[in-house]
Amino acid sequence: MYYCMAKLIFVALLFCSFLSVSEQQYTPDWTSLDTRPLPRWYDESKIGIFLHWGLYSVPAISSEWMWWNWQGTNPVESIVAYMEKNYPPDWTYANFGPQFRADLYDPNEWADLFAASGAKYVVLTSKHHEGYAMWPSTFNFNWNSMHVGPKRDLLGDLAAAIRNRTNLVFGLYYSLFEWFNPVYLQDKSNNFTTQYFPETKTLPELRELIETYKPEIVWSDGEWEARDTYWNATQFLAWLYNESPVKDTVVVNDRWGSELLCKHGDFYTCLDRFNPGYLIEHKWENAFTIDKRAWAYRPTANIEDYMTIEELLKEVVTTISTGGNALVNVGPNMHGKIPPIFQERLRQMGSWLQVNGEAIYATKPWEYQNDTINPNVWYTSSQDNRFVYAFLLIWPKDSNEIILGAPLSSSRTIVTLLGSNADSVPWRVASGDRGIVIDVSAIKLHLLQSEWTWTFKLENISG
């Protein structure tokens, strides 16, 4: 009897020790919060879709910063002139609200497009700096998509479509501040010694979003005017990691205070369109726009303003090679349609990933990121180190050989080309201590399954 009781106590203690590890409680300070492991799904996903869609999609002039450019501290003359020419003198930004009808918005259509793109997660702007909420916010009366404009929960409809029709992870962008909110401006005039805005608006709204929609990405922004202590950022993140319905899977970025960029968070964003070109040890993300000049829809954009598929894939490959995730942004229009140029780029990316995805998803940076002699070659590695993948951005026009300086080959090295029907590609040892020369004379480009950025798979490479 004593033995059985002792055994039960031992098992109970052992179980409790495991429980304390798996349910670690994080305290509201960066020292503790930074110990949280990055959820594995995020690093393995590699590619996401960013969506900048809101009331600014109605005037669609300049960018998502239209209101600030029109009536902010230093108005942009061209925006002011445009408004004077096309709208009555008493027109306000709020007057755009009823025009944001989203009358052609089909979240199922969006979900199918994102699945076809090969992306693994989606981040929707729930609220930008203008303050307009894309869901029926309890804390945003008469300035949200249910009360003004579409009369619809735009955010909730997309979350449901993503979850019902795809395997993508659903996430949200949220702006901490609002340009013209009088409560925020009061705190600002007090040098942020008061916290009326975060206490009555930001933090309750964030909690409502998370408890209602359970996003597994919280992409914060609008942090640059006040420190993290003003936003009570560490207290919020401790709740998010300890108690929220997504506590085990959620990831957040580094935009929680004016001093935090590239310092804290599950992944760093550092700057918009951040792509340093070298290995960053902490997980990071490159959020970039297919429209090179704006995040939101612009009817004034010309074809040269959009990334070509070659430019897009270069951004993706160089980002993932150096340890980042790529967040590819598109801007739907006021009707809720994603313009064809964005659709084409996303579907092109998806067709490329169908061929080359094994070199992208769940990979890790290799010993070398960019080749030592060929600037148009970037690398990733399989998690088990069995394969090294060499991405060739530009196919040589005047040569039948591709020289790689980084790989150290062996007698067992095998080179294959993803998207080719050939079992292997001939190669030889380059002159010097390392490097290989790949013979591509027999390859017919028009017969390859991939039309851009070709991937050579290297097996039995020593380093």
TrEMBL record:
It is an enzyme of class 3 (hydrolase). GO terms for cellular component: lysosome. The keyword DNA-binding does not apply. It holds the Pfam family Fucosidase_C. Residues 21-358 form the Glycoside hydrolase family 29 N-terminal domain. Its EC number is 3.2.1.51. InterPro entries: FUC_metazoa-typ (IPR016286), Fucosidase_C (IPR031919), GH (IPR017853), Glyco_hydro_29 (IPR000933), Glyco_hydro_29_N (IPR057739), Glyco_hydro_b (IPR013780). SMART domains: Alpha_L_fucos. The keyword Plastid does not apply. Residues 369-459 form the Alpha-L-fucosidase C-terminal domain. One of its GO terms (molecular function) is alpha-L-fucosidase activity. GO terms for biological process: fucose metabolic process; glycoside catabolic process. Residues 1-24 form the signal peptide. Keywords: Glycoprotein, Glycosidase, Hydrolase, Signal. Belongs to the glycosyl hydrolase 29 family. Alpha-L-fucosidase is responsible for hydrolyzing the alpha-1,6-linked fucose joined to the reducing-end N-acetylglucosamine of the carbohydrate moieties of glycoproteins. This is alpha-L-fucosidase. The lineage of its organism: Eukaryota, Metazoa, Spiralia, Gnathifera, Rotifera.
